[in-house]
Design a protein that fits this description.
about 375 residues, Butyryl-Coa Dehydrogenase, subunit A, domain 1, Butyryl-CoA Dehydrogenase, subunit A, domain 2, Butyryl-CoA Dehydrogenase, subunit A, domain 3, 3 domains, 12 helices, 10 strands, about 15% strand, binds flavin-adenine dinucleotide
Length: about 375
């Protein structure tokens, strides 16, 4: 394990940070209030190469290894205060691009990956249903094969990028009697007949990342758009979730570092009882705890990314890194508010939004409870 960065990696990290600081932060507070997606920022990220970071150059990506990818995402998360925009980018990368790269046919990859890397089309995945969240494999949406098509019926909820997505991996069952083994993934284009997007869902945090319910009413999907084989949906989803858990919170490590620095600055500047509040040990210890959480999260992120790139099984590490970073992020955001006092509770401080954004990380890609359930079972319990 070698985490000494090359000059090239360091330059890329610095460039991503400077790009984010300069290009992605205008008007975030207003967009958060209006639940508005930053399409211009999305395109700028794509032009920088973010969307295609882990995708081979032949398909329009940057061809970066996993460690470089998470390091660049960490820098992006440090520089960009729009956690919703970054979440949308992550959903696009980890739930669509990477599964497509690993399970897609040559034709599917050639057709979609360049468009996904260039940000021309927006993607995501749709697994969760109103009756199946943590118990994802109990989904009810069906896919019936009719000659050269599958006909999908059912609905999905909480789909990130759902209202703006052009291409979504939709999970459905071709045979309910097979349980999880009957599940199959489909590349569903927005304009396929019988596909309908519901009203956008308003969220507590990550409000600049659009989310919607999706409906399938005899939705016709060409057989060519099946992702993987008919019985491979379970492993496709498990693979997709593993990448998601391992990498989706890289930007959160950057966000935590930003919160730490902002809190240190505030603790130095804010005076009470005739001295800087950072001189009070009860305040200083919160900052030290924040620093411990950032460092612990970063180490876990790099270790998991490195392991992921070796091709070894990382189910345990991916569950643990997701759990570690999400819980640390929430606690860092809580501490940052406490250190900022009443000002931290005000929208203008831009600290309260960080807590709202961070909280979602304990829910998506499997809740904290589910990460613990997975880890316990992989520990033989
Ligand atoms: C911001 C955000 C983005 C999302 N994006 C997507 C997306 O793009 N695509 C998609 O398909 N889904 C998405 N989801 C849905 C997400 O995956 C689910 O919300 C999550 O898996 C939990 O499912 P649920 O909400 O139905 O909760 P439930 O499964 O109903 O869980 C409710 C509570 O019970 C607990 N619980 C459930 N089972 C167990 C158990 N076995 N042991 C212990 N505790 C348990 C849970 O941890 C939770 O606390 C997103 C969710 C959020 C919040």
């Amino acid at each position: 394990m070698d985490f000494a960065w090359s000059n090239e990696q360091l330059e890329l990290r610095e460039a991503a940070k400077n790009f984010a600081l300069a290009e992605l932060n205008d008007g975030v507070r207003e967009r958060d209030q209006r639940s508005e997606f930053n399409l211009e920022g999305w395109r700028k990220c794509a032009d920088f190469g973010i969307h295609g970071l882990p995708i081979p150059v032949d398909y329009g990506g940057m061809g970066a290894d996993t460690l470089t990818t998470v390091a660049v995402l960490e820098s992006l998360g440090y520089g960009c205060v729009d956690n919703g925009l970054i979440f949308s980018v992550n959903a696009h990368m980890w739930t669509l691009e990477v599964p497509l790269l690993n399970f897609g046919s040559k034709e599917q990859k050639a057709r979609y990956l360049p468009l996904l890397c260039s940000g021309t089309i927006i993607g995501g995945n749709a697994m969760t249903e109103s009756g199946s969240g943590s118990d994802a494999y109990s989904l009810q949406t069906t896919a019936e094969r009719r000659r050269d098509k599958y006909v999908l019926n059912g609905s999905k909820i909480f789909v990130s990028n759902g209202s703006i997505g052009d291409l979504i991996v939709v999970y459905a069952t071709t045979d309910r009697s097979l349980g999880p083994n009957g599940i199959c993934g489909f590349l569903v284009e927005r304009n396929f007949s019988g596909f309908q997007v519901g009203k956008p869902l308003e969220k507590m945090g990550l409000r600049t990342s659009p989310m919607a319910e999706l409906f399938f009413d005899n939705c016709e999907v060409p057989v060519d758009n099946r992702l993987g084989t008919e019985r491979s949906g379970k492993s496709l989803f498990a693979h997709s979730m593993n990448w998601e858990r391992a990498c989706i919170l890289a930007s959160a490590v950057g966000a935590m570092q930003r919160l730490l620095e902002k809190s240190i600055q505030y603790a130095r500047d804010r005076k009470q009882f005739g001295q800087a509040i950072g001189k009070f040990q009860l305040v200083a210890s919160k900052i030290v705890d924040m620093k411990m959480r950032v460092d612990q999260s970063r180490a876990a992120l790099y270790q998991t990314a490195w392991l992921q790139s070796t091709g070894k099984s990382t189910f345990l590490e991916a569950a643990l890194v997701k759990l570690t970073i999400s819980e640390n992020w929430v606690r860092c955001a809580e501490d940052a508010i406490q250190i900022h006092g009443g000002y931290g509770y005000m929208v203008e401080s831009e600290v309260e939004r960080e807590l709202r954004d961070a909280l979602g990380s304990k829910l998506y890609s499997g809740t904290s409870e589910i990460q613990r359930v997975i880890a316990a079972s992989l520990l033989g319990l």
